[in-house]
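Record minuted for completeness.

…
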Amino acid sequence: MGSSESAIPRRHESNSKVLDISRHVSHKAFVKHSRGEINYNCLTEIPWDLRDSTTMYEKIDASFNHISDIPEEVPLRIPHLTQLILSYNKISSLPETFALFFHLQELRLDHNELDAVPISVTKLVTLEKLDLSDNLIKELPEEIGEMNSLARLNLCNNRLRQLPVELAQCPLQVILVQNNRLQKPSQEVCDLGSWKTIEALRSMSSGLPTQQVTYTLEFPRILSPHLLMSSHNASVRNLEYSQLQIFPDKVKTPLIPPIGSSTLVAADLRDRIVGLIYGAAIGDALALATEQLSVDECLFHYKPLTLCYDDIIRDEHRTHWKKGDWTTAFDQMALVMDGIIQWAGVVDELEFAKRLLAWRYSGFPELGDKHGFCLSKSTDEIMCDSEFTTDPHRVAASQDSEVEDDVALVRALITGIPHFHDLEEVMANSVRLCKVTHSSSTCVTASAFLSGIVALLLQGTNCQPDHLAKEAFIAAQQYLPNEESRNKFAAIFENPAKGMEEKEGCMKALRVALQSLRWGRDFRLTMMKVVMAGGDCKAAATITGAVHGGLTGYSHLPRDYVLQLLPQQTDWLNVKINHLLDLMAIP
């Protein structure tokens, strides 16, 4: 058989499960091989002993050869094969018997001469990883949707013009399709990365036009009768909103922002506010899936890119809530929002302490809660004090040791909204609510800092992570007792990645949220990075969801994350959001 017999495999013992008949190449040899120059050491055919007798190999590497075809008897002779590497060869077709690799999990056919994906490949139901990059493939068969184990697919550098909608039926986590000629979905969408491509395929498979992959949710805004808007046209409403700002009615719209307080038009300001609130709810609801689990347990139970509320496992902790419900973190935000709505923006620690205590024992009865919830052991001790509702700041400050967990931090997300144009007011309100249960200067400053981030997002001037952190810190540092503590706190925006290394506390949650701003604006991917860390991820996920929801806006949140929240909860929440927007006169 010529060169096929002269090549000596590096691992070809009878008792080995690995066969390596690849050719090791230097960079110079790699360049020559890529040009198609044949080296006398290259195999041009599959060796005879793989054709004539049954072997027990589980992995075969035959890369960097000049093999042009696979004999039809080969799959019958290697029944236990799980990994097959045929990269950098001259293969242009595969036999029908290729489908008989019943245990194959990984197949690499990159850098070959395939002009189509053989149907036999689509019959590999156990295949999890498939690399077909750098071939001449012009189209994919519809049958590819039958590959119900396929999680990773590489199709880069081919001649594809469209992806079949059936591909959406595969459990894909990663799909690479750069450098093709795609029109459906567009190459521009696919070049944004795996998740955008997967979302595009799902949109196509559900009959939606591809451009809707960017999501276009519309919040059900119901205007109060006292907000006399003459048109449903967004441009006209923006103009009418500006007129209300010039001549405000402080009785009916006490929280209307002064003119020039935000660079955002009314519609975009509303989109950010609603996105911030819903982002927090989504973050809390997703975190229920993984909190108190180790990273390995998270990876065992869930597939990150496809995690949804229905996937949440049921155990002693998670059975307190229904799938698609938020938990104690967002409940606190709702309590703060209720107080702001009832008292027209006035934040009072006594009023909040009473709400918090009532919630501790009864939850939200209107949502069907049969009992209350515990925030933490330390906060429970504070709330059980007989003077908690009359002097909560003193009670919290009188504890033997300062509480520095992240329980109170989420309250700052709401206090950043109503007076967003006034950082001093925003931070004072945030501090007032934080001190109800947490008197630590670290927690107090973290709350002020976070509410400042929210306010700056709504002002809309500069939403770059470094700018947001720097401006928020300048205003929040007044709550730190000395220069040493200020320097320590300042490090969170100089190196927020350190937050991933911390074990617990409000600083970890804050650091993680700041670090996430540097990951880009893909809401889903960002949330998965935070949630799949497990452990005490609830506050970090809630805050991250809020900040990213504020950046992207409600209209661009993932549809499934919003629409699969419990309907009773979202109807209840929408009423509160509409009341808040009414107070701010935002149409």
Notes: The chain has two domains: 3-214, 268-473+549-583. The longest helix spans residues 266-287.
